[in-house]
């Protein structure tokens, strides 16, 4: 799933290099005064005319005692000009199940070949690369700014650093720190974009996958009032497992331990999450995330001033769906996913929402397909549906060019004509036009699709299916009764 959120619908303009830019050193690379440091562009692309300001610190490094807490604005440091040339990346982690599914999902989609692997729900898959990439660093709250075009890119990545939670953790840690980091980055853009010639009323945020989910969290931030528990037992369990992996017994000790150990513990925990699971993610916390975001969207407790363009791929869930073999396996998986619900809810999921009827009426012909459809809807397309339904000025596309797996549309969106590629370039240009016109004008128009304009999602759940044969207009396949059911969040 990909989400593009535009904060204003008024006419946008390209950023132009304004007077606040000052001339730099002998290399003539520009230096900007950010009012807490001087930052010099790392590079200037003379062909495209784009300055690249790299590794701009927007928060104090979250190390030691600042770890697992909301970020702090950066301290003033004018001791020298920062050129952003130190290379660093956030701590990385591989989700183990994805490596296994990559071995079979393509031939399953193409030829319906069932995977020949044994799957068990016990949570240990994946490996933890050692040695680690030397650029990995916990203190990775940085932004890159490209002028005249500005691209926003910040995150502590999936994993433990930004998303520990639960009663035990919360005694001295802040849940959802990753969302607070992202919020501070968005605030930084509001405060500083004019220094790069930008207009703070014309900001577009674009993210895919878990990042698209984080945009939903930003739209529903602080959305309700009630304080609700999330899954305290599971969250405490994950927190304690993390402490164990880091070989410490408290959050205080974790803050004092070396970065290497924490980076390893994070990678090990995510890798060992089990096929179809991640361990870490946002949780209800009574403030930033007062309720499940789908409920907040349904109840109108979200930002109304934005327009959104939301895309999903047809087979979003396949890579995250373990190949279960029978009814018992399907039930066991759903119970693991929703550990706190009553049996009646699980019964409804397995008997009514995704019943064992394999003649295609429900979009599947065997258990692997059934699990994939259930995962696609519960984790991805019903979230996209909830967002598109909640925002008045929303647009949607459904990317269905085979294999249309999770994040498949990104390859087309970032297609570069100067590189060799076998993809359908018409499809690529349609997606690129949608994105560029959404950024410029707040609507995903283009010429190659043949429509005079793309209608808003509206009551009819209008979307543009984009496949390898044609580009049409249709009702969103996620605009169905099952997504209405998932929207009630009876399962958490
Ligand atoms: C200020 O920035 C310089 C250059 O990036 C760095 O070497 C120094 O450690 C910084 N000072 C503080 C107090 O962070
Ligand atoms: C921007 O500059 C950084 C630091 O030199 C470099 O690593 C990065 O590749 C550059 N990005 C582009 C798109 O040129
Ligand atoms: C699908 O089956 C055909 C015919 O057996 C084979 O040539 C092709 O490689 C298979 N494709 C995949 C992705 O497995
Ligand atoms: C399935 O995997 C097993 C164990 O790796 C192997 O012995 C068997 O030949 C495979 N079956 C098929 C049909 O590929
Ligand atoms: C864990 O900590 C204990 C006590 O500090 C130490 O003896 C042990 O070597 C550590 N184990 C690992 C794997 O770091
Ligand atoms: C589970 O069922 C019990 C008894 O019927 C009910 O009181 C409770 O609210 C239900 N819990 C959920 C999460 O639906
Ligand atoms: C599929 O099976 C169900 C239950 O037996 C039946 O009601 C339905 O008509 C069947 N659909 C098709 C397309 O065969
Ligand atoms: C590429 O996609 C477009 C839009 O779906 C379609 O009209 C065209 O036939 C496709 N081209 C090829 C070579 O498949
Ligand atoms: C568009 O392509 C899809 C997938 O191949 C096909 O099912 C549908 O009939 C086509 N629609 C039109 C209007 O050609």
Automatic annotation (TrEMBL):
The keyword Hydrolase applies. InterPro entries: AB_hydrolase_fold, CarbesteraseB, Type-B_Carboxylest/Lipase. Keywords: Hydrolase, Signal. It comes from the Eukaryota. SUPFAM superfamilies: alpha/beta-Hydrolases (SSF53474). GO terms for molecular function: hydrolase activity. It holds the Pfam family COesterase. Residues 43-151, 158-477 form the Carboxylesterase type B domain. Residues 1-20 form the signal peptide. PANTHER family: CARBOXYLESTERASE (PTHR11559). This is Alpha/beta-hydrolase. The lineage of its organism: Eukaryota, Fungi, Dikarya, Ascomycota, Pezizomycotina.
